[in-house]
Design brief:
alpha+beta, Nucleotidyltransferase, domain 5, 23 strands, 37% helix, globular
């Protein structure tokens, strides 16, 4: 059996996979997030370990873990976990949605070598500008920094005592030559870092090392368990849904929104604000457009109206053409296509007659229009997508999925109910890493429960509404 550990922003998910690829069980444990100042987002790595222990203990209470051979890791990308020479954590981890380093990101991005070598814009959420912020604002901490690890790689260090990372996660640091799948000494030096402060790079199926005996005893696992490098959350999710080669892709309606396309080669287009990263399987890459507030936008509306998100969407009835009310979902800034950490959201054309259902409809339309921006950016790189698989909590709303299919003008497959995504992808990477099985044999696509086709009678009206949405960004920016 194999375990996939997915370290998300809100918690840890542990999934137990049988050798035949079927899921035996899963368990979750929450992790708190601190926001000490506007734009700051931090977590204590000790909470990751506590949540991992809790999730694995729940699994062990229901399932025998005596047959576990490997643990694969997945996790939130871009975090900066700073350790001293003894491996002690020096400060809370700066997370992917921490935007305090926007000035440092702009300075690094102004150096053409960063886009040329990494294949990406230096976004404020990336690791390099965060560590540069620490250097400039917490110099004593920076001076003591011996290693910088991504969140899931800190779990790997705790489990094995080794400093390693995988290609897909490390591609989001802005320190990597993504085409060559190696650290870039030039980019490290330009941000005040050294190669010895970086973990060793592995492919996602690479073996990090054996579980430390004391950890194995404590967690009730065999001491022969091998820890596999795994992947960043989106790459691992792609492994979980079988998006491995050119033409495969998915859309994720989670806290953030992701439109991902697997690529057979390295085709960067940083000017589009598309992310171009190594895949978690060897010799492949993927590209994605990212919006920072997808279901987060609906959750925000639910909070301010005192209504559950599911109740908001349930009240909408049948899909209808967009109205005049428009929502720009930039509640936490935006990545694709704007690369703007300071832009904030807005309602336009509010009317005295606007009701809760109108606000709900506008919010999910705005998120869907932002994802269409990502689709346009992806297509500009040469990515070809004829249909998408939809995952994430937002897909429980049929209205939203039908709206998204109509907005993107692409069929959207809904998988059958079950476990898939990052934790499953991590477990599949562990299976491949330990047994040598081919990813194409293990990382199959989930059975499709239903395909939602675009509403041909509404595609023109949604295209017109998207054009108006896209034209609103520069106007909103000018009002800041």
């Amino acid at each position: 059996m194999f375990i996939g550990l997915d370290l998300g922003t809100s918690g840890v998910r542990a999934l137990l996979l049988r050798a035949d690829g079927t899921v035996a069980d899963s368990a979750d444990a929450a992790t708190p997030v601190a926001h000490p100042h506007p734009g700051w987002s931090e977590q204590d790595p000790a909470d990751w370990i506590a949540a991992t222990r809790t999730a694995l203990s729940e699994l062990a209470a229901r399932q025998s873990l005596a047959g576990v051979q490997g643990i694969g890791l997945s996790g939130q990308m871009h975090g900066a976990t700073l350790l001293d020479e003894t491996g002690k954590v020096l400060r809370p981890c700066l997370l992917w949605n921490d935007t305090r380093s926007h000035q440092q990101a702009a300075r690094l991005d102004a150096d053409p070598d960063f886009r040329a070598i990494s294949g990406n814009i230096v976004f404020p959420g990336f690791t390099a500008p965060k560590v540069l912020w620490v250097a400039e604002n917490e110099p004593d901490t920076f001076a003591r920094t011996a290693k910088v690890l991504l969140p899931k790689d800190y779990l790997a260090y705790w489990l094995t005592g080794r400093y390693t990372s995988d290609m897909s996660d490390s591609a989001g640091t802005a320190w990597m030559d993504v085409g060559r799948r190696a650290w870039s000494d030039a980019l490290l030096a330009k941000s005040g870092m050294r190669r010895d402060q970086m973990p060793a790079l592995l492919e996602g199926t690479g073996i990090t090392g054996a579980l430390r005996p004391e950890i194995a005893r404590d967690l009730g696992l065999p001491d022969t368990v091998q820890v596999v490098a795994g992947g960043g959350d989106n790459a691992a999710s792609a492994c979980g849904v079988g998006a491995l080669t050119e033409g495969d892709g998915f859309v994720s309606l989670g806290t953030s929104g992701v439109l991902l396309a697997a690529r057979d080669g390295f085709n960067p287009a940083p000017e589009s604000a598309v992310h171009t990263f190594c895949h978690a399987i060897p010799g492949t890459w993927y590209q994605m457009g990212v919006i920072l507030a997808a279901t987060d936008s609906l959750n925000w509306l639910a909070k301010v109206t005192g209504t559950k998100p599911a109740d908001l969407t349930r009240a909408l009835g049948r899909l209808q053409a967009p109205g005049n009310l428009r929502f720009l979902p930039y509640l936490s800034g935006e990545r694709t296509p704007h690369n703007d950490s300071t832009i904030r959201g807005a309602f336009l054309n509010l009317d005295i007659a606007s009701e809760q259902a109108d606000l709900t409809r506008a919010v999910i339309e705005g998120v869907s229009f932002a994802l269409k921006d990502s689709l346009i950016a992806l297509k500009s790189t040469g990515a070809k997508l004829d249909k998408l698989l939809a995952i994430g909590g937002g897909t429980r709303s049929r209205y939203w999925v039908e709206l998204l299919a109509t907005t993107l003008n692409l069929p959207i497959d809904l998988p059958e109910r079950g476990d898939f995504g990052a934790a499953l992808g991590a477990a599949r990477l562990a299976l491949c890493g330990v047994t040598g099985a081919a990813p194409s044999d293990v990382m199959t696509k989930p059975p499709v429960a239903e395909t939602i086709d675009p509403r041909s009678d509404l595609t023109d009206s949604f295209a017109e509404a998207h054009a108006a949405f896209a034209a609103s960004y520069p106007t909103l920016k000018a009002l800041q």
